[in-house]
Write a structure and sequence with these properties.
Length: about 600
């Protein structure tokens, strides 16, 4: 039985559950260290070469929890990059999936019934084989936690293990004619972050739950399932074997069919961030390509396109931001987005002129050109237009300060994670210069995610991942725009607008008002049987986003830029193996790494 509240309720739990509650729910499922079950080379320090990455991701003292549903999970280098393996990864240049644990798959053209055959060469770090049962557990938990797959698949009956190495995935009846690209996108890039051994009991508890209260109890228990670095089973090429106050060591997973041949390990936390690159101490650094004073020892691999965007996200705590699109538009006009982009984005990046919810690098593939031309461009700073919009709502400016229609100082709560301190300071300065009283402060990213983002405790903030697709299908972007639990337009927690909205007719900002049923447009987009229909629905939803502006999309965010030490290591900068959703890890799996 699937909880009705979905991801919105799950995120609410994440923000309000305390540690004591979680321990009561977990009972005797509290994990223990499994490092003793890993057959690794304990003499790795003497026998392996050491690599120093720049990422400051030491999991000592449980600064990071190895549970993908936990607020202290890190989905970057700790998880998505190094520790856990994919079913398949998407190559952003070739536009195709590259199998990893999957050997092959077949899809029935009539009803999209899918069989995925797995390789039998992969195993967990503890030695147990990776099987279809592990992936089924992962799919089911994502569905039970309301993360999207449940929209298209009956989680209880539509995904199962035919045998130990065959997964069967079947869409719901109403989606058997959905576009194949969109269908593949729903399951192909599953990253195996949970094992059946450690998480299978949660699936059993969901299946036995009969009421919403019982389902919520299981969801709460997952959200509070604290797996430390030495308690988790790793499916990917790297495993943590040491974490102390000075450093953490990741060594090749001895059970991974490729990584087991490597003879180098990573020592994390010794030289960190851009200072590590500028000092020449790190061997690879995931940092901005615009760093100054980078030593000649570094080269730059190709930049994978990952479809993320940097955006200003509007909250619902302030009644004027929540209830008036004009107020959100005024804030947008008060920010100098072109200068923000020039200062903080990768060189050559253009700002987003449309703010449609679809990444600006491929919006032209899915939205009609004449409608794009008719859209409001909120990017260039226009304080006169911003003032006009606020005054239309009833705001007044007194001695350079904006007062609400009630005559009170208009103060905006603007907390941000420290990944974006420079970006947000520029935004805050623009708004303060315009006359808005800004309560701007920077928090450590894990704290911001757990206490601010999860609890929606902001009037505005900034974040990535606004726009989810790479080059597959626009549905992923728009479903996230309207249903994401922290910035969706009409989710239970964040709703700024109703599912039916009134906007000027599509492509004509001065035209008559029309009513758009957003859910209906999303449903029809998911089953569009022609490119023309797909573009029609995408164009309508892009127009809704541009007119209602739940977020100001500032610019596309290039992902996975690496400075790599080519003086000491044989990195191939001409290879296109960098250009996948798994970035440097995929490059290493395809090429290995040897000293020069």
């Amino acid at each position: 039985m699937l909880a009705a509240q979905g991801a919105a309720g799950v995120a609410a739990f994440a923000g309000c559950m305390g540690d004591d509650d979680g321990e009561d729910i977990l009972g005797d499922t509290t994990p223990e260290s499994v490092l003793g079950d890993v057959d690794y080379n304990e003499d790795y320090e003497d026998e392996f070469n050491v690599i120093y990455p720049s990422a400051d991701l030491n999991p000592v003292d449980d600064d990071y929890i190895f549970n993908p549903y936990h607020s202290q999970w890190n989905a970057g280098d700790l998880g998505q990059e190094f520790g856990f393996e994919y079913l398949a990864v998407f190559h952003t240049e070739r536009g195709e999936y590259i199998p990893r644990v999957a050997e092959e798959w077949s899809i029935d053209e009539e009803g999209l019934r899918t069989e995925v055959t797995l390789s039998d060469e992969y195993a967990w770090s503890t030695g147990e084989p990776i099987t279809a049962h592990d992936f089924v557990t992962a799919y089911k938990l994502d569905g039970y936690m309301g993360l999207g797959m449940e929209d298209f698949v009956d989680i209880e009956e539509g995904v199962y293990a035919e045998d130990d190495y065959t997964i069967v995935i079947e869409p719901r009846d109403e989606y058997r004619d959905m576009e194949e690209e969109l269908w593949i996108e729903e399951w192909a890039e599953m990253i195996l972050q949970v094992s059946d051994e450690q998480y299978g009991h949660f699936v059993e508890e969901f299946e036995e739950a009969e009421t919403d209260e019982e389902i919520e109890s299981v969801q709460e228990s997952i959200l509070n399932y604290d797996l430390s670095w030495d308690e988790v089973m790793y499916s990917g090429p790297w495993i943590f074997v040491e974490a102390n106050e000075e450093f953490a060591d990741q060594i090749p997973n001895p059970e991974h069919p490729i990584a087991q041949e490597w003879d180098f390990f990573q020592r994390i936390g010794v030289y960190v961030d851009e200072e590590g690159v500028q000092s020449g101490e790190v061997d690879w650094g995931d940092d901005s390509p615009d760093l100054d004073d980078v030593p000649d020892m570094y080269g730059e691999g190709p930049l994978p396109y990952d479809g993320q965007s940097f955006a200003i996200i509007f909250g619902t705590e302030d009644e004027y931001i929540r209830d008036y699109p004009e107020v959100r538009q005024a804030i947008a006009y008060a920010v100098d987005v072109p200068f923000l982009t020039e200062t903080t984005a990768t060189e050559g990046t253009d700002y987003d002129e449309y703010s449609t919810g679809v990444d600006s690098l491929y919006v032209e593939d899915y939205v009609e050109s004449d409608v794009l031309e008719a859209m409001e461009n909120y990017g260039p700073e226009d304080t006169d237009r911003a003032a006009e919009l606020l005054e239309d709502v009833g705001f007044e400016q007194e001695d350079g300060e904006w007062l609400t229609p009630d005559g009170e100082t208009w103060t905006l709560n603007f907390p941000v994670g420290d990944w974006f301190d420079i970006h947000s300071e520029m935004i805050s300065n623009n708004l303060a210069e315009f006359g808005i009283d800004m309560d701007f402060y920077v928090e450590e990213m894990p704290t911001w995610q757990a206490e601010t983002e999860d609890n929606l405790d902001y009037d505005l903030t900034v974040q990535l991942n606004y726009g989810m697709a790479r080059d597959y299908h626009p549905y992923a972007d728009f479903d996230d725009v309207f249903n994401n639990n922290t910035m969706g337009l009409f989710t239970e927690r964040t709703g700024m607008i109703d599912e039916e909205v009134e906007v000027p007719e599509v492509g004509n900002p001065d035209g008559d008002t029309v009513t758009i049923d957003i859910e209906e447009e999303l449903d029809e987009m998911s089953t569009a049987d022609s490119e023309e229909d797909l573009i029609d629905h995408a164009t309508t939803l892009a127009w809704v986003h541009n007119q209602t502006l739940p977020a100001l999309v500032c610019y596309p965010w290039g992902g996975g830029h690496y400075w790599v030490n080519t003086e000491d290591w044989d990195f191939d900068l001409e290879s296109d193996d960098w250009l996948t959703s798994n970035r440097i890890t995929h490059y290493l799996l395809e090429n290995g790494l040897e000293p020069v």
